[in-house]
Amino acid sequence: MGLGTYLRLARAGFVLAREGAFSLAEGQPIPPSAKLMVGIARLIEKRDVRKTGRVTRLANALTRLGPVYVKLGQVLATRRDIIGFEIASDLAALQDALPPFDEKLVPGLLAQALGEKAAALKDISPPLAAASIAQVHKARLQTPQGERMVAVKLLRPKIRERFARDLDGLYALAGVAERFMPATRRFNGKKVVDALARSALLEMDLRMEAAAMSELADNLGSDGDFGVPDVFWEQTGRSVLTTGWIDAIPIREVEKIQAAGMDRAKLAASLIQSFLRQAIRDGFFHADMHPGNLFADPKTGGIIAVDFGIMGRIGKREQRFLAEILYGFITRDYYRVAELHLDIGYVPQTHTIDDFAQAIRAIGEPLVGRGADEISMARVLAQLIEVTELFDMTARPELVLLQKNMVLAEGTARLLDPQFNMWTAAEPVVSEWVRRTVGPQGRLDIAKEAIDEALDLAKRLPDLGRRAERVLTRLEADQLRQDKKDPLIEILKWGSLATIVLAIISLIAHLGGAL
């Protein structure tokens, strides 16, 4: 790491201290040496920041430091296992908004990204929204079918270089912290920066966002309550994304939604139900459902989403797990909830189902008979995380983003309807999924999956056999040349045979499970 890297880190530390971000360390279990450093850092804290909330202090600091630090805050918001539920919930409210770059650069950037295809974009507006990685303009697009109003999302100039430079600084910071404060190693700082780097790499290729929009639109089909803008592929590239313009009301403008005669309670329920269908039914969901990314459409009565840079994906196993967990809470079947955690391996078998079910009951029962405005999914998730820590449950990366977005979606739903009841809204979607899954059709689907896996394995067996035969032939030739039995060669030979036998047994097991 060069001197410039450490100078940038020094500036970051100064900004964090001035904005009062180190106040977050109060009451946290940190080493005495770290407490001393925090105390010194707070000496240069602005006087007025003591009057603001913690999220404001941290959000201000991260926003001042620029795109990489804003994204770092968003990544940390998904890692409640590292920073705790309360701070993560604060960070989840961090809005990805920064000053726009000079609009005079836009024509040149479009020409560089799209070549001659850029000429079809006319009357490009000043920037309407600016985030850490890109900003959005309104424009007219000339197409063979006629003129369309479009939204043009354009990456910030030299954003990739800035990210690479600042990521170097974060890796250096993680290394220094682990070297001089061994207690911080449990936070896996370098892995957090790795996650940030992977996320940024995907977000800075807008073709990936376009593909996500296309996939989500196909999944939603005729659901009707959650819309995705059209993608104009000819005016889309690595650093530019062109989509249909949305004439709708921002979700945060609840008075305008009311004035338009839209049912706010229905909108809130539609938001949660669509999110659950995306996660449980499709395993692919919009993972950044804060109010700035959602609009109410008076024409359809539904919701239209934008900004598909952060998407979540879970497998069929996790889809079933999520649905049955929610269903278990709705029906108060706490034993089933506990059983699922142990069956899927989230909680070690060293703990009993009865003990874990008792802990789950302690979360679920206080919800019974409570008013709609008193039942919070965020609170339930916080308690569930606390309980699972007691039972040695490790954080599951595939569920962390889903948990974070569930909290975001619930908060947005409550903005629309202060009396919103998460459980009532979830029940139709979850019940339908469970009925379809555990019923005759569901069992047929599971059997079909098992048979497909078995057939795929069967197709690979001949190739596996040919490879094993070649290995055995070479091993026997080596033995003949040596004119004696080498124990290592014998082990390899029998190991090859055992591999074939195990493959056949696995095939039989798959077929047996399917039937």
UniProtKB/TrEMBL annotation:
<keyword id="KW-0831">Ubiquinone biosynthesis</keyword>
<protein>
    <submittedName>
        <fullName>2-polyprenylphenol 6-hydroxylase</fullName>
    </submittedName>
</protein>
<dbReference type="InterPro" id="IPR004147">
    <property type="entry name" value="ABC1_dom"/>
</dbReference>
<feature type="domain" description="Protein kinase">
    <location>
        <begin position="122"/>
        <end position="489"/>
    </location>
</feature>
<comment type="pathway">
    <text>Cofactor biosynthesis; ubiquinone biosynthesis [regulation].</text>
</comment>
<dbReference type="Pfam" id="PF03109">
    <property type="entry name" value="ABC1"/>
</dbReference>
<keyword id="KW-0547">Nucleotide-binding</keyword>
<dbReference type="InterPro" id="IPR011009">
    <property type="entry name" value="Kinase-like_dom_sf"/>
</dbReference>
<keyword id="KW-1003">Cell membrane</keyword>
<comment type="similarity">
    <text>Belongs to the protein kinase superfamily. ADCK protein kinase family.</text>
</comment>
<keyword id="KW-0808">Transferase</keyword>
<keyword id="KW-0472">Membrane</keyword>
<dbReference type="InterPro" id="IPR000719">
    <property type="entry name" value="Prot_kinase_dom"/>
</dbReference>
<keyword id="KW-1133">Transmembrane helix</keyword>
<dbReference type="InterPro" id="IPR045308">
    <property type="entry name" value="UbiB_bact"/>
</dbReference>
<keyword id="KW-0418">Kinase</keyword>
<keyword id="KW-0997">Cell inner membrane</keyword>
<dbReference type="InterPro" id="IPR050154">
    <property type="entry name" value="UbiB_kinase"/>
</dbReference>
<dbReference type="InterPro" id="IPR010232">
    <property type="entry name" value="UbiB"/>
</dbReference>
<keyword id="KW-0812">Transmembrane</keyword>
<keyword id="KW-0067">ATP-binding</keyword>
